[in-house]
Amino acid sequence: MLSYIIRRTLMAIPLLLGITVVSFAIMKFAPGDPTSLMMDPTISQADKAKFMERYGLNDPVYIQYFKWLGAMLQGDFGTSLIRKGVPVMEMIMNRMPNTILLMVVSTMLAVVISIPFGVISATKAYSKLDYSVTITSFLGVATPNFFLGLILIMVFAVQLNWFPTGGVSTLNEPFSIWDRIHHLFLPAFVLAAADMAGLTRYTRSSMMEVIKQDYIRTARAKGFKEQKVIYKHGLRNGLIPVITIFGLMIPSFIGGAVIVEKIFTWPGIGLLFVDSAFQRDYPVIMGLTVISAVFVVIGNLVADILYAIFDPRIEY
Amino acid sequence: MAKINLAENPSPSLELHGIKTTRDTMLQIVARKFFRNKLAVIGGIFLIVIISAALLAPVIAPYSPEKQKLLEKLSVPSREHLLGTDRFGRDIFSRLLYGARISLLVGFASVLGSITIGTFLGAIAGYVGGIVDALIMRFVDIILSIPSIFLLITLVTIFKPGVDKLILIFALLGWTTTARLVRGEFLSLRSREFVLASKTIGTKTHKIIFSHILPNAMGPIIVSATLSIGYVILAESGLSYLGLGIQPPVASWGNMLQDAQNFTILLNSWWYPLGPGLMILLTVVCFNFVGDGLRDALDPKINE
């Protein structure tokens, strides 16, 4: 097991390096080199040469890449072009807690809602309840999150005035947990919606498989209550494949966070990314792209390792 | 019961048992299986309606999509303006029709590009194998590890948005899943007897890849293309919603939604966001239904 974990971790390293090469190449070979944006176009020839020298732009491309990579490994993503001199890392770290809060809450929401529905759907397969859960989750997958968000803002924030239309807290009011939850509810729900649908369907099919197994019949034959058979014997095994789905969902989850943060002006890294894109603040864009990919790679790594730990049938 | 095709010499015993022995073309079988799937047929009909409406937009649309009549701004749906008007007094129904043109154009054109790239690279990776395969597939892994919205937005900021640039960007980013799929098909097909036979009689490699193996892998490619169009339409409207895709005043479903996210509109003109939102939803769902239908119809392992 330990050797599997080590091997799997080592496999992630070339992937991470590849990601940095691709991000660097996009920025470097893009038409209209982004670094030229940093310079004042009216600058004199001599000043331009000095500028090129200072930022190492005269070095061969691969040297520039290694310098950039080396700095990044030490947490130095350069400085913002728009907010002159502010380190990109500092901007990202300021926004990170908001994004993590949003993601953790919406993951919990998705799990708490979809796993029970998936299990009930499987135990009462082909009933009316099962069909309505299936149809709802199908619509959930198909509805674009920006449309769902807009509709929820329209109904619950603008028309009914139950929730705020966006932001993390009420202006000029001291911090309170209740205020934060109040602001968090709609964005967390929208972000969770797409995952909920997928998770419900996946839990359902996984449980359908499990219920057919011999050990479930044995448990029933022993006279255990149906409740205990399903939730104690069944669910434990039924949830193992769901871990993999979690890993696969990470990229779309991070992508979803970008749009959700924009809809609800939730000041996390997603909103920072969209704002930086408008201002063409390339160091921030690049830093966030690399960080998001690192999240995906680590997320998949953790999912694979958890899968190996929880499923003793698999030998590594 | 699997169909038995014995066209040349219909066996009397099979005829006696009531089994049809005439030969159906592949296309007939696929069509029959597809039309049996109700959702796929409904999806297909809706798509035909949407595509015709988009093609005929200049004829159907009662107004020019960009003509402003500020005196009639945010009017309610009426006989003159079927779905009302937006903040600049532009007819929402006409804008929806022209928005369909943009979404479908971006969807079809970029998927044509991405399928071509993906099929080409996937075929080479799967057939040649070894280091070429490893290089192409590791590159695919890298692209797929970066959440697509980050790559999309990064490329959009570099290239500056516009319909042609968006098509190019979606084509350049969308080929990875097709490449994986085609590679898988080629891995299993390349060791089959007919490939060995072609090799033995000295057929050129590119001919084996593209005229002998590729036709056998067309089914999954067509399914993947259909599903990708829905995905691209969704992503394009998402970008336009963020203000990074199709730029106003050109109408797209995404930027109409962005335009509708305004307190006054959400309070008084609730029908405005519903139009573009439901069009996106409907179009994407229909492409998914048709794609699923084609998957079952093209799969010879699934019986009628």
TrEMBL record, chain A:
Domain ABC transmembrane type-1, chain residue ranges per copy: 96-307
Primary localization: membrane
Subcellular location(s) of the protein: Cell membrane
Membrane topology: Multi-pass membrane protein
Gene Ontology cellular-component terms listed: plasma membrane
UniProt keyword annotations, A-Z: Cell membrane, Membrane, Transmembrane, Transmembrane helix, Transport
Ranges that cross the membrane: 12-30, 100-123, 135-160, 180-199, 238-264, 284-310
Pfam families from the UniProt entry: BPD_transp_1 (PF00528), BPD_transp_1_N (PF19300)
UniProt-listed SUPFAM superfamilies: MetI-like
GO annotation terms (biological process): transmembrane transport
UniProt record similarity statement: Belongs to the binding-protein-dependent transport system permease family.
Protein name per UniProt: Diguanylate cyclase
Organism whose genome encodes this protein: Mesobacillus subterraneus
From TrEMBL, chain B:
Pfam families: BPD_transp_1, OppC_N
BP-aspect Gene Ontology terms: transmembrane transport
CC annotations in GO: plasma membrane
Species lineage: Bacteria, Bacillati, Bacillota, Bacilli, Bacillales
Membrane topology: Multi-pass membrane protein
Similarity field: Belongs to the binding-protein-dependent transport system permease family.
Keywords, in A-Z order: Cell membrane, Membrane, Transmembrane, Transmembrane helix, Transport
Subcellular location: Cell membrane
PROSITE patterns per UniProt: ABC_TM1 (PS50928)
Membrane-spanning parts: 39-61, 102-127, 139-159, 165-182, 213-234, 270-291
Primary location class: membrane
Domain of life where this protein originates: Bacteria
ABC transmembrane type-1 domain span: 100-291
Name of the protein described by the UniProt record: Peptide ABC transporter permease
Organism from which the protein derives: Mesobacillus subterraneus
